[in-house]
Each structure stands twice: as structure tokens, then as C-alpha cells.
Amino acid sequence: MWKIVVRRLLILIPQLIALSLIVFFLAWLMPGDALRGLLDPSMPPGEMNRMREEAGLNDPWFVQYTRWVGNVLQGDLGRSLQHRVPVTRVIGDNMMNTVRLSIMTTVMLYAIALPLGLLAGRKHNKIPDKVIMLYVFTFFSIPTIVLALLMIFFFAFGLGWFPAMNAVDVRAAFEGGWPEFWSRIHHLILPSMTGAILGGTGIIYFLRNQVIDVQNSDYITTARAKGTPERRVYTHHVLRNALLPIAGGMGASIAAVVAGSLFIERTFTINGMGQLFFDSVLGRDWPVANALIMFYAVVGVVAGLLADITIMLVDPRIRIK
Amino acid sequence: MHKSGLQLAWHEIKNDWLALICLFLFIGLIAVIYIWAFAIDETVAGRLSMFTMNQAPSSQFPLGTDPMGRCMMQQLVLGARNSLNIAFVVTAGGASIGMTIGLFLGYYAGHVDNIAMRLIALWGMVPFIMMVVILRTLLTIETWFGFSMLLILVGGWLQMSGLVRVMTLQQGRLDYVSASKTLGTPNIVIMFREVFPNLVSIITSGLTLALAGNIGAEIGLTFLGFGLPPGTASLGQQLSYARSPGTMQQRPWQWIPAAVLVLVLMLCINFVGQALNRAADARKRSR
Q1: What does the pLDDT look like over A79-95, one tens digit per residue?
Q2: Three-state SS string across chain A, please?
Q3: Which ipTM did the prediction report?
Q4: pTM, rounded to two decimals
Q5: Are B255 and A30 in contact (CB < 8 Å)?
Q6: CATH architecture for the domain at A87-285
Q7: Which of A56, A118, A150, A224 lies 20 to 30 angstroms, CA to CA, from A144?
Q8: B125–A259: do the CB atoms touch at under 8 Å?
Q9: Cβ within 8 Å, pair A289-B134
């Protein structure tokens, strides 16, 4: 098994190299350079040019590229032009909100999608299936923004059940402890529900078809024929096989949740990395924007890696000898 | 009887009353939006007026007025037309590029395909939205057409190329392709005249998904301020009125109609797409 994991990890290397080239190229497209963050009105005129030469910004691109990669590997992503502190610190301040939002969305996503998908498959062509499929097709391609706005309108302003914006109540955050924890959960319910309702549709549809397929396979007929109780047929025979591809798709759906948080953070004004990305692009703070692109892309790559490894672990047929 | 891809698709839609209603509703909506938008004089409709700012719906303004005093009803029609323009152009452009790439890669397979797929996978790694936002800021884009081109280049072709490639890989191994090659038919002709017609049903179902996705892309990007140039009416621009909490609560007529229109369009596209999907998948086809 370790052989496969190692082999899969090796594919990661060219992926990351190519990714770094894309990000470097984007950074090169962006106006200004790393020294703009240090620009100071009191500097003598020739000073900037001297500093550029010293920092190696006049070197050929491949020299700059290798130096940049070296810096990134050591955790140095440059300085934010707006905040005048290292990029890593700016991102670090916002990261936890995105992580919390993504975890909560993922939990809700599976809490909605797994039972509904199984139910729809089990009651194929009966009323529960039709109702669930109506939900799936209704929400399948609704833009995140539209649903987010409607959720805020009905549940935050109309019914007043949840706050419409921010990640935490300021007073609760000041108190800390349990009040802070509950305030955070309370603030995250609406945004993560939005993400889960939209993200769940694909999984429900897939799981339902999976259950329908598995139900008609020979070993299920065998299980029924030997008198296995109907409940047990589902929990022990259908469920296990139907869930295999879902486990494999988990990496992809977590990556989708993280990518979807871009819109959700913006609509619900949650100070996460997505919000930071748009703010830094609007403020022309390229080092921060660039670092965030890299971060999101790496999340995508790692999610793909985890997906491949999980599916190898749970499905012995895919393992290479 | 053998049926072509489009005949199969029509057969599936005809037998599904929901899809049939949705198809006609969709065509009807599109026709109304385009004809109505054509009838509106844009310079008159776009005139700002201090006296009619933020008015609630009345007999004079059926959907009220926007913060610039313009009739929301006319703005909605114009906005919907602009959004649909973008969605159609991006879908058509992205699909043509994607299909061509997919056909070539799937047909020739082998090393070229291998390397190209790696490159395409890399391009897909950078989140679509982030790439568009960055390029939108770095490049000067003045028109809806320029914005559509950006969407096509960054991601419009990705999904279709993958879909067509996989299907072409399967088709390329079938006997009719080898037979055609033996007869000396040029590869280009085999690809476009012989393989392509067999993919029509799966492509149409892919197109509906792409159309819905592209409407969503315009809305999302314009809402965030990285879409159409400011001042251009679009569904995303009208939804962005809801960004101020005051408008969202007290002047729902400025954004709810756009949201409802988007929901209706998406529902129609989805239910038609579902029928097309069945047509593309022989196992699920109704007889």
C-alpha cells in the first residue's frame, strides 16, 4: 500500500512545480514589485533603484524564480503592500474563519446529503425520491449569491433567527470561552447552510443512482434470498458499496466547499481568506492576492491527492500490485 | 429505429411533461426578454432622474425604480438580456473550443493526449473565480463581449474538452472508425463527420449545464464587482443592490425580481437538462 501512496506523492512534485510557474507568471503580470511595500516618501530618488539592484529584481527571470521558490519554501511570501506586514501574518489572521466555515459546511453537507441520497435511492420512484429529486434539481445550479441573499432576506432579516453578517459577535469574542463559541456557531449556521444546500445536490444525486445500481446487483438478491432482514441488507450490503465512491469524492467536495467559501464570505461579510482575496485585489495588494491564489490551488491539489489515496484505501480493486 | 442525437433528445423531452413545460417557458422567456429589450430605447431608459429615486412599485413603474430613478422593469429586461448575451456567447465559444480540443486529444490519444491532459489539469488547479478576478483587474475590459472572451479563455472550455475527450476516446476504439481509416477517409473528416454526430446527445446535455454555470458566473463576478463594467445593466448588477442591508430589507423590489428571474431560468435549464441527460445515457432512456 505504501508503494501507491509514494507513487501518488511523486506526481505531486511536477504538479507543484507547474503551479509555482503559473503563480510566478501571474506575479510577473502584476504591476509593481516586492519593494513597493517598503516605499517611503523620505527616500532619496536613486535609492529605489539601488535597492532593486540589491534585492536582485533586475536579474533574469529564472534566477528570480529560483530565489522566490526558495523563499516560499522557507515560509517567506513577501510583504503586504497595504498592511505593511509579512503576507503570512495577514493571511494567518483571516485563515481560521475560512477553516471554521469550511469545516461547518462540510459537516452540514454530509449530514444533509447522505441520509437524503440513501432515502431517495431506497424509495426509488416513490414519493420521497420524487420530493428529494425536486430539491436536487431546484438547487442544482442556483448561483451561490442568489441563495445566500435569499437566505439572509428570509432567515436573518425576515425571521430574525440568525445574524446576517460577521463571523462572531464582538462582545462575545471579547468574553471568550463558551459565549464566543456559541456566537461563532450561531453566526456560521446560515453561511454554511447555504454552502451545504448547494454542494449537497451533486452528492445526493450520485448516491441515489449508486444505491439504485447496487440494489439490482446479484449479491443483494443473494442476501435477500438467504433471508437477511431488509434493514441489514441496507446497512451491511447496500450502504457499504454505495458509499465507496462518496468516500473517494470527499476530497473534491471539500475543495469545492473551500472554493465556494469565496462567494459566501463576501456575501455574509465573514473575514476569511476569500474576503481578504477580494479586498487585496481591490486594494492592488498583489503579494497577498498571489499568496492566496497559491494557497487555494494547493488546497485543490492536496484534496485531489487525499481523494486518490482514500479511494485506494477503501476500494481494494484499484490498488496496484 | 435508429435515432439521431437530437431526435433522441426531443423524444425524451416530449415524454416528460415537466421538461416540456420548462423548455417552452425558457424559450418564451428568452423571446420576451430579447424582443422587449429591442423595443426599449436604451438612452431614454438609462436617463437618471432625481425625482423618481427608489420609488416603490406603482402603476407608472410596475417594479418601482432603482437608486438612479430608472424604471426597474426596463432595467430588469435590459439586464437579463445582457446577462443572457454573455451566457450564450461564453457557452457557445467555450463549447466550440472545448469540443475541438477534446476531439483532437481523444482521437489521437497517446503521448500528445497525455501531456495535454496534464497541462489542462494544471490550468484547472487555479480556482476559476480567482483567475478571472485577477485578470479582470489587470486587463482593461470595457464591453460585455470582452468580458465574455475572458470567461471563455480562463475556464469556459475546460469542462467540455474533458467530456468530449473521454467520449471520443471510447468512440475511437470502435470498428466504424477503423473501417473508415482503412477506406482512406481523412482524419479530420472522421473526427467531425463521423465521431462528432455520435456525441451530440452528450454535448447537448453538457451545454445546458454550461449555460446555467455561465449565467451564475456573470452574476457572481458582477455582484463582487469584477464583472461587467460599472453602469451596465445585468442580473448580477441588480442583485448587488442587495449588498446594502437597507436596500435588502426596505426596497426588495430592487433585487427580488432579478433573483426570481434567475431562479426560474435555472429551474427551466435544469429540468430540460435532466431530460437531455437521459437521452445521452442509454440505460436511463424511456422507450
Answers
A1: 777 777 887 888 888 88
A2: CHHHHHHHHHHHHHHHHHHHHHHHHHHHHCCCCHHHHHCCCCCCCCHHHHHHHHHCCCCCHHHHHHHHHHHHHCCCCCECCCCCCEHHHHHHHHHHHHHHHHHHHHHHHHHHHHHHHHHHHHCCCCHHHHHHHHHHHHHCCCCHHHHHHHHHHHHHHHCCCCCCCCCCCHHHHHHCHHHHHHHHHHHHHHHHHHHHHHHHHHHHHHHHHHHHHHHCCHHHHHHHHCCCCHHHHHHHHHHHHHHHHHHHHHHHHHHHHHHHHHHHHHHCCCCCHHHHHHHHHHCCCHHHHHHHHHHHHHHHHHHHHHHHHHHHHHCHHHCCC
A3: 0.82
A4: 0.83
A5: no
A6: Orthogonal Bundle (1.10)
A7: A118
A8: no
A9: yes
